[in-house]
Write a structure and sequence with these properties.
Layout: H1 16-40, E1 43-50, H2 56-64, E2 72-75, H3 82-85, H4 91-94, E3 102-107, H5 116-119, H6 125-144, E4 148-155, H7 158-170, H8 180-186, H9 189-203, E5 210-214, H10 218-232
Parallel strand pairs: 1-3, 1-4, 2-3, 4-5
Helix pairs in contact: 1-10, 2-10
């Protein structure tokens, strides 16, 4: 789509109306993509990485809000358990990889080792170096086995991250997003930058490249990332035709229990239920 001045406000951000229209177009394409993935038995694995408050969750939400959760599912793992800490590092991620006909979105992934674990000292130097020796081979194995692996890094500026942290802190509905680890990351900005650079140096390969999303403007990042994701998987429109709904079957011998016998949720909005055909 060609850019025009009518699409943006004075700050260079997409107007809300334009954003909603473009997002709706992408949602329609995501619907087509999910049917294709299911029909062709594709296995798609998408990693979303980046600094805290970079907007990974917002993009994932816009992808999943219109698709079938049985086809497109999200994996957001907690910190490893005591047992998982004794296992091969990649082991707990393997069981979440896609089966045929699935697309899995990892909200953070095995790259935790190169970010928070490295900066916060949750892994040893040997474990850190072993990750770089193992990860490219691990990802190549996935790709050779037929998994479509796509890796996104959401790039955000120091200034924008602080702005988003402050906004979260002011909003009681979003304050849960601020963790002690998030606050600690503010004082370790440069350390995270160095860790990211090292991660790219070892794992931005020809077979499994990193795609960097400019994430300073949330709406732009969402549209750009989803558009790019759609471009990575050739698909065709095999959306099923509308189905003909069968008529409901009436049973003259069925007597519905009286409506007063049910524990109805109080109608704080709308009207109380009438005694009509309902389940």
């Amino acid at each position: 789509m060609a850019k025009t001045d009518e699409m943006y406000d004075k700050k260079g951000k997409l107007l809300n109306g334009t954003y909603e229209k473009e997002l709706e177009k992408l949602h329609r394409e995501l619907m087509k993509l999910q049917y294709w993935i299911k029909e062709k038995g594709l296995r798609v694995c998408v990693l979303f990485e980046g600094r805290d408050a970079a907007g990974k969750g917002g993009v994932i939400k816009r992808i999943t809000e219109v698709v079938n959760p049985r086809i497109v599912r999200v994996v957001a793992l907690q910190k490893p358990t005591e047992i998982e800490r004794t296992q091969w590092y990649f082991q707990r991620y393997i069981k979440h990889l896609p089966a045929a006909g699935e697309m899995v979105l990892f909200d953070r992934s095995w790259y935790n080792r190169t970010g928070v674990e490295r900066v916060m000292g949750f892994c040893t130097e040997e474990e850190y170096q072993e990750f770089f020796r193992t990860c490219p081979a691990f990802e190549n194995m996935l790709i050779r086995d037929g998994i479509v692996l796509i890796k996104y890094w959401f790039s955000i500026s120091d200034k924008e991250q602080e702005k988003r942290f402050r906004a979260r802190n002011k909003d009681p509905l979003k304050r849960w997003k601020l963790s002690p680890m998030d606050l600690e990351s503010r004082s370790r900005w440069v350390e995270y930058s160095k860790a990211k650079d090292e991660m790219f140096r070892h794992t931005d390969t020809r077979q499994s490249p990193w795609f960097v999303v400019n994430a300073d403007v949330k709406k732009h990042a969402r549209l750009n990332c989803i558009s790019h994701l759609l471009d990575q998987i050739p698909y065709q429109d095999i959306t099923p035709d509308p189905i003909e709904l069968p008529p409901s079957v009436k049973d003259p011998d069925y007597v519905r229990p009286p409506i007063e016998s049910m524990n109805w949720v109080p109608a704080r909005f709308g009207e109380n239920p009438e005694d009509v055909e309902r389940s």
